[in-house]
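Hmm, how's this folded?
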Amino acid sequence: MNISPKVTVIGLGPGDPSFCSEKNLQLIEEHEFRYVRTNRHASSCLLGPNVISFDYIYESSGSFEEVYATIVGELVDAAKKNHKVLYAVPGSPFLAERTVQLLAEQTEVEVEIFPCISFVDLAWSSLKIDPMEIGVRIVDAHRFATEAAGDRGPFLVTQIDSREILADIVAAVESPPTERVTILQRLGLEDEKVEKLDWEDLIEKVEPDHLTACFIPCLQSPIASELQKFIDLVAVLRVQCPWDSQQTHSSLTSHLLEETYEVLEAIESFNEETREGSEDLEEELGDLLFQIVFHSRIAADDGRFDLADVTKGIYEKLYRRHPRIFESEQEEKVSDNVDSAHKRWEEIKKEEKKRSSVLDGIPDALPALAYTQKLFEKSETLELLEEKIYSDRPIPETDEEMGSIFLDLVFWAAKNNFEAERVLRIANSKFVTFIKDIETLAENRGVDLFSADSQTKKELKAEIRKRDFTN
């Protein structure tokens, strides 16, 4: 009879072994192979001398997400080998336990989860409050600045495990709360400590550890309150201002373009050494931000998306397109080199967008000169075209020299009755055709231009030399 591999997850309770449930104690007895996320917990002694702790993974991994993924991988392998294993976590498996969440999401082995009392139950008892009645939010201290954004509380801030994290929390609050906050430490243990403190005394009087939390009854102003105030203002203008209420995405395009150029002008005027012009740049960035928030507000009115969706989308995109930084398991696959990082970005984007060409996604509405710049930047990632693009032309050494060449060309075009913008668009069109011909050539030969070996690239370069994108 085949037994399906299974991981049984239990909670050990918040502190003293007496908080562990009878059911979970029974499960410990029933399992020969026992694992615990960390031995830094008073109830880990219940698991006996042969328990395997994952503390060593914390010491050898570069990020918490890597730690959690490694733990889950080892548990799955252990279940496949031994048919059934026990995995114990501090507190309750259903509260702030990323490994349990990842285990529940995988499909290789069966997972059964048994709850237990958590430290938050002890917190409510110590604070003498009903969290549902007053609407307490539980927030991870490591993500306080983002998770508490736009809210006044009350908050129970958990896992304040270092002075640095405590300092980040204090720094994130613009207007300190007038009501005293409560520090809760080592709840359920003999040395538990519950203390009310003024906000300004937190850094001086609190020595955080991995069992430290803070209850904040109310904030004077929400985290990131300036941004939230601005978003609220745009929403009010959208309803009450006659001009704002009539705008659409299309009607705002000229304003968006104008504000973009004004930001560019402010950047050009900014002096990197003296920092002169910083105030102008700050103002123009604000005007551009208004356009972004305004477009998001228009979409929100129609129920399509809002600013939260916009920010979530760009966050996920940037995270996904930087695997070298955020996915440590790919470290050996992705180079630190800037050029290769750019190529990897283009590869990921092409795959995400289901694009057939590296040129896809360049806006046709760009001015001809900007369009040309994008064409060359994109085609550079193919490497094969370097000789064809640059040939043996002398390379200007300064911005002024390059600018003079452009000026001379435009002047010559005007003098000889050529329209510079139009002729450049014609040249762009021919170059696009040339690049796509090369991509078709590679596709017909079953070659990936990004990962082709040196010999294949050499053969393709020889073929490219025979072609002329100017004809």
About this structure: Residues 329-334 have pLDDT under 50 and may be disordered. The chain has four domains: 6-117, 122-216, 225-303, 352-465.
